[in-house]
Fold:
Amino acid sequence: MAAMAAEAAGGEVRRRGCCGGGGGGLFPEESFASWGAYGRALMETGPRLVERATARSAAAVEVNEVRGRSGAEMKRNLTWWDLAWFGVGAVIGAGIFVLTGQEARDAAGPAVVLSYAVSGVSAMLSVLCYTEFAIEIPVAGGSFAYVRVELGDFVAFIAAGNILLEYSIGGAAVARAWTSYFATLLNHRPNDLRIHAASLAADYSRLDPIAVAVIAVVCALSVLSTKASSRFNYALSIAHLAVLAFIVAAGLSRARLSNLTADFAPFGARGVFAASAVLFFAYVGFDAVSTMAEETRDPARDIPAGLVGAMSVTTAAYCALAATLCLMQPYREIDPDAPFSVAFSAAGMGWARYVVAFGALKGMTTVLLVSAVGQARYLTHIARTHMAPPCLARVHPRLGTPVNATVAMLAATAAIALFTDLGVLSNLLSISTLFIFMLVAVALLVRRYYATGETARGDRNRLVGCLAVIVASSIATAAYWGLGGEGGWAAYVVAVPAWLAATLFLQLRVPMARTPEKWGVPLVPWLPSASIFINIFLLGSIDGRSFMRFGVWTAALLAYYFFFGLHASYDTAKALAAEVAAGKVEEGGSKPAVAGAGN
Structure:
C-alpha cells in the first residue's frame, strides 16, 4: 500500500465538485482556500517543486483515476477509418498551400521537395512513437499524458504549455490562411479582407475578423459530436484529395523539367534544412489523432492503421505537390502567398486558380476542425491533473464532448488569429512542435528501458548516461549547424559518432524493462534516438527571433507553474495519497471508462 502511495504521487485523485475539482471556482484546491493558505503554499514552493519535479504518474492511473475526473465519459465510437481521415484532415492544409511558395522562393528553391521529405521522415518517426504510447495509454491527454508517466510532472507541465501553444498558433495560422485563399476566390488580394490598424507593429497590424468567424463556426461543430465531426471531416477530406490530384495532373501538363533541374538547390544544404524546419508546420496535427484514443473502439488495431496510413499519404502528397509547383514555374517567380493559384494563372489556366482556392479552403477547414477536437482533449486531460483549472476538464453528459475546454482553446486561438502574421506564427509553431516530439521520443526510450522498482540502479544510471549523450550530441550538431559551421567537419566528427555510440551502447548494454503487449515501435532504440536527433537538428535551423519568443513563452509558463500549477497539483497528489493510505482507492483506481458506441 505504501509503495502504491508513492507511485501515485503524480497527482491523481478523483475529486468531486466543480467539474472534477474539490469545490468551486478556478482553483478549488486547499492551497487556494484563503489568502493565508496561499501565502503558506508560496513559502513551501521550494520543497514542493523538488517533490513534483521527480513525481511520475502511472499509466493505470492516467487511464482510470485521472480520466474519471471529467464526470461524464467520452463516447467510444471511432474506427481506423475515422482516425485515418482525421489524420489526413489534420495535416493537409495551410502548410502546403501557403508555406511551399514562401520556402521554395526564399529558402530552398526546387529542393523544397527534399525539405518536405526530410520533414516527413521526422514526422513519421514521431508518428511511430505516438502510436505505441496511444495504444498503451489510451487517454485524451496525448503527449502530455505520455511525458507525465515517463518523465514526471514538471517536464509534463512544460510539454503541456507548448502543446497548447502549438495548437493555438497552428489554428490561428490556418485561420488567417483561410482568409487569404477566400480573398483569392473573390478576386481580391489577401489583405483586402483584413483591417489595417496602423498604430500596431507591422507583424500584428492586419486584423482578421473573418478568421475569428471561421474559428467560431468550427468551435460550434466540434462541441456537438466527435462522430459527426468525423463524418464531416472525411467527406471534405475525400473531396480535398480529389482537388490535390487535379492540381498535380493539371500542373504536370504545364511542366518544364528545366524549372526543376536548372538550379535545383540554389541555397545549398542550409536552405534545404532551414525550409524543413519551417515546413514541419505542414505536418503538425497528426498528434491530435492520438488524443482520440480514448474515443477509439479498438486502439491496438485502429491507431496504427490510422496514424501511419495518414502520414504516408500526406508525405507522398506533399512531395508530389511541391515538385509540381517547381516544374510549373522557375522558383524565383513563385508567389509566396498563393503559389498554386498564381502558377496556374501564369501558365494560362487562370480558371484553375478557383479550383485551387476552393480546395485550399476545404483543406484548411478540416485542419481547423481536427485541431479544435485535438486541442480540447489535450486541455481536458491537463485540467484533470489540476495543472489547469479543473472546471476545464468537464465532459458534457449528453454530447460526450469537452465543451469548456473547446471554447477556452478556440477563444485563445481566435485572439491570436485576429492580430498575428503567418510568418511569425509558423516559426514559433515549429519550435514548440519539434520540442514536444523530441520529448515524446525520450519518453519512449525511458518507457522501454526503465520500470520503477524493477530496473537495477546500474542499468538506470547507464540509461541516463546514454540519453544525456544522445541529447547533448544532437544539440551540439544542431548548434554548430545553426551558428553557420557547415563549412567545417570537426564538430560533426565528434558529435555524430557520439550519438551513434550512445545509441549502440543502449541497445547492447542496457536491458529492456518492458516490451509493448500489442504494438510497438520497431528497431528500438534506433528509431526513437533518430527522432530525437532529427527534431533537435531541425531546431538548429530556426531563426533567433523565434527562439526569443519561445523563451518569453517558457518564462510565462514557469511563472504560472510556480504560482499556481505547482500548488494545485501538489494538493491533488496529497489528497490521493491520503485516500490510498485510508484504503479508499484500490489499485488501478476507478473502473475504466467505457462509453457507449452510439453517436
Summary: Residues 48 and 570 are 7 Å apart (CA to CA). The beta strands are 195-196, 206-207. Residues 80-450 form a domain with the Amino acid/polyamine transporter I fold (CATH 1.20.1740.10). Confidence is low (pLDDT under 50) at residues 1-24, 584-599.
